[in-house]
Amino acid sequence: MLTALIVAAAVTALIAGIAGAWSPCGFSMIETIGTALGDARRSMLALATATFTLGALAGGAATYGGLAALGTLLGGAGGVRDGLACALALAAALADWRGIRIAPQIRRQVPERWRWIMPLPLACGLYGLLLGLGFTTFVLSFAVWALAGISLAAGSLTLGLVTGLSFGLGRALPVLWISPRLRGESGQLALDRLALEPRMWLGLRRLDAIALGACAAALLGSGGALAATLPPFATDPSVDGASLAWQHAGGGRGWLRETTRTVRLPGRLPALGGGRVAWVQGGELVIARRYPARAPHLIPAPPNARVDALAVSARWLVVRDQVDAGVANLFAVSLRDPSRRVYLQGSGAPGAIGRPSISGDTVAYALSGARRSTLYEVNLATGARTVVLEEHANVLFSNPVISHRRLLYERTDRCEQELLLRTSQHGHARVLLTLPSTVTRDPGYQPGYVEDYNSASLCAHRSTGAGGAITLGASALGARDAYVSESPADPAHTRIVSVPLD
After folding, report:
1. Is residue 389 part of a domain?
2. pLDDT tens, 367-379?
């Protein structure tokens, strides 16, 4: 899903790439490819241009996509990191608007000898790769540095790759425009104007400053707009980028809120993920890229069973259903080939299989019984099943959400209900929210008798007697906030609350 931040970063990167034409390497590439080293064949010119463009695209994707991948390993986006990226974008915008000299500057050019010792298409491909990487030659705008910080902070591979490809395309466009005409008068005039009009470069930097301002605004708005006004009487939250979906606590249809609108869906159990929205409508499972959709993907619902949970990614739909006898099943359906189904779990105990979530090809869900509670992750591409967490007595794991290598889940024992976030497979979980358990706690002795042999269970944050009135339910994980359902004694008054991640 192309969010406002992705669009703003792509525009910024495209302009920054074009501004790179005013570097020594930019002029060198135009002349090298435009003259084809004395080879007048148009095929050689076309091939050299193509390899240069592919190299620039690959270099940009490697730099900014790699930084975004590193951001996912560090735990994805968060409020503090978004704030730092916003400050960096604003500082770079001010510097580019004022035309301040670039610092730090990388005073390095592409190796000239390559074009003499290599076939021209190969040399141009390598030249394009170096220019696309952004930080291996002269930097012509502060936006190049700012976009690196934004990619790292956002921790979104989509944003990183789109930014990198846009930057690579920007580096290639001046070459694509001037090189084929360089042997003629129009090409020479264009090259001369490029060399003699530094005001064009300064103008591009000012355009970059405006685009960086849009990036800063998107960073401030991402996540915060979702958490600002959460709907009342809502449960089962689902988040994807700047979109939030939920089910009305009284049943009926689900709802979808995007950046500028809130719509009531024609079905129930809405789920978001991978740029898609899914819901149950009658006897069908509906998957679309947006709502309303012209040609949604329709999959027949399981016969003789009621679907009670969905999760969706770009490639899979995960379904939990239950028959009248209480038997529940959890399975995944390939969106590319609906006939391909992967069975994940079955249980004869109602409520034993928790609400699933999916990120890419990885499904997370909890399975709980009288003796054990286990949190699983299953890779649908390989079939690998991993036990992430397991307890054998008096502990319940529930509502896991996996997103960008982060795991949000709930842990309940006789004392507390906790909402926890883990940012790596073996890392320490951080407590985001704590509520008292709903379990009644016995004082351990009969009133009016001696207390010397008190056998009550000890809890650090609650006294004996009745438990809490609020039960934690389904959850979701956004860029800057976690979302969790809180159910009071009357389930119709269930609400969704947000918890900042920083």
Report:
1. yes
2. 998 889 999 999 9
